[in-house]
Structure formats: C-alpha cells, structure tokens
Amino acid sequence: MNIGIDKIGFYTPHLYVDMNKLAVARDIEPEKFTVGIGQEKMAIPPITQDPVTLAANAALGILNEADKEKIDFVIFGTESGIDNSKSAGVYVHNLLGLNPHARTVEMKQACYGATAGIQLAKGHIALNPESKVLVIGSDIARYGLNTPGESTQGAGAVAMVISANPRIMVLEEHSAYFTNDIMDFWRPIYSDKAFVDGKFSNEQYIYFFSKVWEQYKEKSGLELKDFEAICYHLPYTKMGLKALRTILDEGTEEDNERLVANYQVSTQYNRNVGNIYTGSLYLSLLSLLELNEGLEAGSRVGLYSYGSGAVGEFFTGILQSDYREHLHINDHKHLFDSRMEVTVPEYEKLFEETLPVDGSTLELDITKDTAAICLSGVEDNKRLYVRK
Ligand code: CAA
After folding, report:
1. Whose CA is nearest to atom 11 of ligand 1?
2. Which candidate, 188, 153, 169, 156, places its Cα nearest to that of 118?
3. I need a labelling partner for 108 at 20 to 30 A (CA). Which of 190, 249, 294, 359 fits?
4. The pLDDT of residue 200
5. Separation of alpha carbons 189 and 204, rounded Å
6. How close is the Cα of 252 to the center of ligand 1, in Å?
7. pTM assigned to the model
8. Cβ–Cβ under 8 Å, residues 337 and 314
9. Is the CB of 322 under 6 A from ligand 1?
10. Which biological processes are named by the entry's GO terms (predicted)?
11. How far is the C-alpha of 285 from the C-alpha of 330, rounded, in Å?
12. Distance of CA 148 from the midpoint of ligand 1 (Å)
C-alpha cells in the first residue's frame, strides 16, 4: 500500500526581524548571519501566538470537511509544548473541529518529534487504510537575547495529512535511524530557553547524518545519483549544506550541481523564518516543492531528520503526478508577503513579554494579530484560545 503526505500546510507569525539589523545591533558583521549562518529574516511570535495556535493556523488552511471527519489520529510534535501533562494536540483538535473519535498525543524528542509522528502515522494507516492522520510540528525557538544561538531562533508550524494513496509524496519502505545519549542541546523543564553546546551540536548533527546515510544506503541499495534532492532539518540554512558537502564526492559533477541547486531552493522558506525545530525539515521540503517548478513527478527526495539529545533518521519519498496542484503555493506566498518588520528594540520587547505563572488573569489584545486562531488570555492557570 502506498502511504505518505497527502496535504502539507504552514504557518508563521506575521512579524519578523531583519538579520542585517539584528547583526548591527549586536555589533556583528551582517555577513556572519546572512552568509555564515545563512539567515535573512527571523520570525517573531507576538504573545498571542504559542505552539498551539501556530499549529492550528497551519492546519486550518489545508483541511476540508472530509479530512476533519476522516482524521482519527492527531500527532503533535513539539519541544516547546505548553503543558507537561496535557497534549497540545487536544487543543488543536478542538480548535479545528475534528471528529471526536480520534486519538491525540504529543511527541517529544527535540526536533525529531514530527518525524516520529510520520512513522507512527504510516503504521496506523497500514492497519487502517481508510484513516487519515494529522501530523504537526510546531515550535518557538528561544535561546535568549545576545546569546550565540539568538540568530538561529524562529517560530512556526507545519501540518501534514498522512494517508493511503497520497497526492503529494509516497514515503518509501526503507528508513535508517540512530540514537545516542548526548548533551548537545536541551531545555530543562524549569527553563523557557534552550541550553546548547553549539559547536558540539554541529558536529553531532553531521556525525548522525553519516550514520543514517550509510545505513540507509546499505538497507536500500540506493546511491547519491538516485536522489533528485535531499532536504535537511535546518536549525540554520548553512547547517544542512555542511552535511550535504560530506557526501558530494560520492556523485558526479552533474549530481552535485543538481543536489546543491535543489538544496538552495529547499532553504528559501527556512532562511526567512528561522529554526522552527520539529517543523524545520518539513518547511524545507515545502520550500523545495513550492519553489522549484521544474521538479518532476517520480523524483526521489531524501529527508534527514535530527533531534538533539539525540535521534537522527534518514528516509525518502517519491513525488506523485500532479503533486503541485495539491500544494498551497499562493497562500504561503501571501503569508510571506503580508508579514511586517519589527525593529530590534520592538523584537526585544516582544521576546521579554511572558504569560503569568502565578495563577493571575491576563487578557490579551488579539486585534493586532492577523492570525485566525490566537491566544486570548490566561485565567486560573488555563490558556484561552479563540478562533476569530
Ligand atoms: N562573513 C561570512 N561568514 C562569517 C563571518 C563573516 N563576516 N563571520 C563568521 N562567519 C561564519 C563562520 O566562519 C562560520 O562558518 P562555518 O561554520 O562554515 O565555519 C559561521 O559564520 C558561524 O560562525 P561561528 O561558528 O563563529 O558562530 P557562533 O559560534 O557564534 O554560533 C552556532 C554558531 C554555534 C550555530 C550558534 O548559532 C548556536 O549555538 N546555535 C544553536 C545551536 C544549533 O543550531 N546547532 C545546530 C545543530 S543542533 C540541531 O540541529 C538541533 C536544533 O535544531 C537546535
């Protein structure tokens, strides 16, 4: 049975900061951020957006009534969840008006959560071919003002419908994965900002890639030449390029040109959003599919997922005929085009705004937030959401 991605949608908040201006404010050469890190714009979430609303807004644009009826499993990948007990997916299930006869869970393993969700969804569809599964990766990446990680922050969500006979991409049989207990990036429960051993995390990302790439080739019998493109988890857009470069000597000049050109296309959305952790790999896939008009049906795309701590996985998909007709290219173009720039001081103010943690009530002004689904306040330690 063919199982894979039937629909894919994306949401990022309506505010961003220009990386050139952030660099100047931090007394850093702008090229370090735009070339060395490879980021142009960083999405800034207003206080009225959290991982729940980002996820719900991403899914809202792609689901029709039939999907809402057929979805019987919601898998919410996140590493910036809002509750240590209740799944963020349950809020999203309600905000989207999904069929109550559904399972809903939250998956956590750093940026790998949505990939684990996709693999779980594959198994579910294999047993229940009529079902559809909603898999979401939604996060807000926070390292802190004036930290080395600051230039790699971001916010957004990718929502995917996984089904039998998918219209966008069939996921192939083979997959290679690798786990090792390391401390490259982590966020203790008491902290709203991540801790990171930056250089070590870069090294481990590449080491895990080499492990799963070698195992994938052994399992599948495929080689570099068999790939039209490889998409990477993108904490920042230079990172995936570093990993890609480690395998280019396995291909011809033509293979290298194709893979590097497609890599550049696959980083465009991420370059203008920043790291969205669980959704980053799928935002890169979306960027490739929506922006490379010449990518033919039948092409094989490799996907490298990396979640610090750490778990890595490499798997592949085949593009389906007329897949472009099932993308939401214009909606995503509009989303990017309608964003508003904030100054560095405005971004710093937004970054410092936090929700009460002492049980007090807070009512938020949602009129300035252009999103359909917003956080409207907090009362009795409960977050309140509205769908406008
Ligand atoms: N012009 C052009 N390039 C410049 C430059 C200039 N003026 N100045 C510096 N650069 C280049 C450097 O040469 C370097 O390039 P290479 O890596 O290719 O050598 C690049 O800019 C970055 O410079 P530094 O290494 O000095 O940067 P840094 O140490 O200040 O910070 C970082 C980089 C460690 C990635 C930091 O941003 C960080 O800690 N980020 C968060 C962690 C992270 O994203 N890790 C990635 C792997 S972990 C993962 O993938 C999971 C996840 O999502 C977090």
Report:
1. 36
2. 169
3. 359
4. 98
5. 23
6. 29
7. 0.98
8. no
9. no
10. acetyl-CoA metabolic process
11. 16
12. 8
What tens digit of pLDDT does each residue of 16-59 get? 999 999 999 999 999 999 999 999 999 999 999 999 999 999 99
> Do the two domains 3-169+327-387 and 171-322 of this chain adopt the same fold?
yes
Q: Quick one: tokens of 77?
A: 């990948």
- The answer regarding whether domain 3-169+327-387 maps to CATH 2.160.10.10 reads no
**For the chain, domain boundaries:** 3-169+327-387, 171-322
Averages of pLDDT over runs of 10 residues in the chain (388 residues) are 98 98 98 98 98 98 97 98 97 98 98 98 98 98 97 98 98 98 97 96 98 98 98 98 98 98 98 98 98 98 98 98 98 98 98 96 98 98 97
pLDDT of residue 246: 98
Q: Is the dihedral of CA 183, 84, 151, 289 positive or negative?
A: positive
User: Which CA distances in Å does 296 have to 84, 314, 319, 325, 331?
Assistant: 43, 22, 7, 13, 22
